[in-house]
Amino acid sequence: MENTSIIKIEHLTKSFPMGKSKFTALKGINLTFGEGEFAGLVGPSGSGKTTLLNIVGSLDVPSSGEAKVLGESIGSLTAKGAARLRKEKLGFIFQSYNLLAVHNVFENVEFPLLLLKYTAAERKKMVMEALDWVGLTDKVKSKPPQLSGGECQRVAIARAMVKKPSIVLADEPTANLDAANSHNILQTMVKLNEELKTTFLFATHDEKVINYLRRKIFLKDGNVDQDEISTN
Amino acid sequence: MKLAIKLAYRNLIGAGLRTWLNVIVLSFSFVVIIWMKGIMVGWDHQAKTDMKNWEIGGGQYWQENYDPFDPFTLSESHAAIPVSLNDEITNGEIVPSLIVSGTIYPQGRMQSVAIVGMNPHQSIFMLPTEKLDTTTSAIPAIIGSVSSRNLKLNVGDYVTIRWRNVNGMFDATEVVITGIFSCNVPSVDVGKIYIPLEKLREMMSLKGEATILTFREEQSERPEITGWSYKNTATLTQSVDELIQTKTVGQSIFYAILLLLAMLAIFDTQVLSIFRRQKEIGTYIALGYTRREVVGLFTVEGAMHSILAAIVSAIYGLPFLIWMAKSGWTMPIEASEFGMAMAQTLYPVYSAGLVISTVLIIVLVTTVVSYWPSRKIAKMNPTEALRGKLQ
C-alpha cells in the first residue's frame, strides 16, 4: 500500500530565536513517507514532532534543508501556494479539536468545502458522508459546546476527511480523550486510512496511539532516534 | 468575498449578545444622526419657505439706500417706483412696501418700531393684510404675536405712533390693532407694525414711493434699475444658510462623538476577538486561508456590524423617523427668540441622499475601524495561533 513517496524530508533543520541565541528543534532530519501510511512522530515534549508536523503541513518553513510534500517544496512556497496546498491536499486534526465554536457540526465539516467552492448540493452530500464515517449524522445541528470531547474530535476528523485529502496530519489527537474515546477515534482513523488510502501522520506520545501506528518514528532532541515499521 | 460575507455573518450571529450590543449602539448612531440631519434639512427647508411666504417672496428690489440692519438709513430709503414695473404692480405680481422708522407708545411706554406700509390687497405674503382694509376711527394696523405679547397690545387696542416725515417734522397719530398674526420669521414680527401703504405714503408725503418691491415668482434675473438693487432669493436667504452651516458644524462634533462611541465598541470587540480567537485564526489558516484572507474575514465581520445596524435601525428607526416627520419635533426653547425663521415645531426632512450618505459614511468608518486591529493577524505565526499562545 505504501509505495509512492508523497512526503520527502532531506537534511531538514529548524531553529527558533531564543533571546540572543537560537534553539534548534530539528537537526538535519531525513524521512520519506509513502502514500497510505499510518505513521507517527513519537517523542516527549520538545523532541520536535509538532515542529516537523507543522512544516509538513506548510504552516511553518524549514530553516535549512528541504521538505517536499506532494511534490511541493515547502520552503519555496508562497503564502498563497501554501494555503492552496493545505486547502486542497491536507487535513488537520488538533489536540484541542479547534472547531469553530459558533458553527454547528454541519457547518464545521462543511468549512473546507466552502473554501474549495463546491456547490451546496455537493457540500451537503459530502458532509453527510463524512459524518456517516464518524457516526455523527444525528448531531448535524449541534454546536461544539453541546458535544462531548470524543464527539468533538470525531467532528474534527470528519472536517479533516471531508475533502478526501492526500495527507491527514494529527497533532496529539487523543490527548484530551479518555481511553474508550481514544480507541474509538483511532479505529475510525484506521478505517478511513484503509478505505480511502489517506496518509495519516501523527505527532504523539500517547501509548494508545502508538499501538495503532504501523510506522513509528521516534524523535529525540530534534533527531530521528528510531524508525520502526510494524510487520502486522 | 462571498465566502467571507457568509462566514462573517455566521460568526456574528453565533457570537450572540456581543454582536447585538454593538449593533444596537451603532444603530442608535444611525437613527440619531439621520434624525438630526433631517431636522437640519427640515429647518433649512421650513426657514426658507417661511421667509419666502412672509418676507422675501420670489426676490426683491431694494431701494439702494436700504439697509435692514441700520434703522438710521430708513429716512433715506425710499424712491419713486420705476415706471417699468407698473404693469406688474397692477397685476399683483409685484408688491411695493414702504418702511419708515417710528416710535410706538403702548401703555405710556416708548418703543422703536419700523412702520411698514403694505397694500391691503396684496396676495404675495401670508400677512393678513386684508385686515388693514377696514374703516375705523384710527388707522388700522396689524402686528405679529410676539410684538403683541411684548407691547401688550390686542385686537381693538388703540395706540399712538409717532414718525418723522420727509421734511424732518415729527407727527403722531393713533392706530387701532385690527389683526394679530402668528409667524415663524422673527424679522417680520418683532419691532414691526403694518399699516395700509397709501396711508403711510400720505403720512410721509411720499406719494408713489416705496422701499422694497417684492416679486411673486422666483426671478432668475432682473434688469438693472437705477436707484434700486436686485436681490434674489439665494442672497436673501444667505443668512439662513450661514446659520444652518454653523449649526451643522456644531452637530458634526456631536455625530463624531456618537460615532466614536460606537466605533470604540467595534474596535474593542475586534481587539478582543483577535486575542480570544487565536485558535480559530490558526484553524482558518490550517484549513486553507492565507493570513490576508483572515484579515479580510475579520474586517468584513467588523464592517458587517454596520450592515446589521442599518437593518436594525430600519426596523425601529424607520417608524420613529416617519412619526417624527409627521408629528415634528417641538423645540424646547421659545423659537421666536432664536433670531432666525424657526417654527416652534420642526418637521425633519429625510432625503434618499441623506440616508444613503449617512449609511455609507458609517459603513466606511466601521470598516476602517475593523481593519485597524485586524492587521495584527497578518503578523501572527499560525503555529502559535493554533495553540492560542500569542500575547
Tell me what you see in this structure.
The complex is a heterodimer of chains A (232) and B (391). Chain A has helices at 49-56, 79-89, 105-115, 120-134, 149-161, 179-196, 207-212; strands at residues 5-18, 21-34, 38-42, 64-69, 72-73, 90-93, 167-171, 199-204, 215-220, 223-229. Chain A has 232 residues and is α/β, with parallel strands linked by helices. In chain B, a hairpin with a 5-residue loop joins strand 6 and strand 7 (170-181). In chain B, helix 1 packs across helix 10 (291-327), helix 2 (17-56) packs antiparallel against helix 8 (238-276) and helix 8 packs parallel to helix 11 (352-374). The longest helix of chain B is centred in the first third of the chain and has 40 residues, at 17-56. The interface between A and B is medium-sized, with 31 and 24 residues.
Shape of chain A: globular
Give me the CATH fold name of chain A.
Rossmann fold
SS-based class of chain A: alpha/beta
Q: In which range does the helix fraction of chain A lie? A: 25-40%
Counting copies of identical and different chains, the oligomeric state is heterodimer
- N- to C-terminal separation of chain A? 13 Å
Question: Which structural category do the helix and sheet elements of chain B fall into?
Answer: alpha+beta
Q: Output the CATH class name of chain A.
A: Alpha Beta
Give the gist of this structure.
The complex is a heterodimer of chains A (232) and B (391). Chain A has 232 residues and is α/β, with parallel strands linked by helices. Chain A is 35% helix and 30% strand.
List key phrases describing it.
heterodimer, A: 232 residues, alpha/beta, Rossmann fold, 6-stranded mixed beta sheet, 4-stranded antiparallel beta sheet, 7 helices, 30% strand, B: 391 residues, alpha+beta, 2 domains, 9-stranded mixed beta sheet, two-stranded antiparallel ribbon, 12 helices, 18% strand, elongated
Compile the SSE list and pairings:
The complex is a heterodimer of chains A (232) and B (391).
Chain A: E1 5-18, E2 21-34, E3 38-42, H1 49-56, E4 64-69, E5 72-73, H2 79-89, E6 90-93, H3 105-115, H4 120-134, H5 149-161, E7 167-171, H6 179-196, E8 199-204, H7 207-212, E9 215-220, E10 223-229
Parallel strand pairs in A: 3-8, 3-9, 6-7, 7-8
Antiparallel strand pairs in A: 1-2, 1-4, 4-5, 9-10
Chain B: H1 2-15, H2 17-56, E1 60-63, E2 79-80, H3 86-90, E3 94-105, E4 111-118, E5 139-144, H4 145-151, E6 158-164, E7 170-181, H5 186-189, E8 192-196, H6 197-204, E9 209-210, E10 212-215, E11 228-231, H7 233-236, H8 238-276, H9 278-286, H10 291-327, E12 329-330, E13 345-346, H11 352-374, H12 382-386
Parallel strand pairs in B: 4-8, 5-7
Antiparallel strand pairs in B: 1-10, 1-11, 2-9, 3-4, 3-6, 3-10, 6-7, 12-13
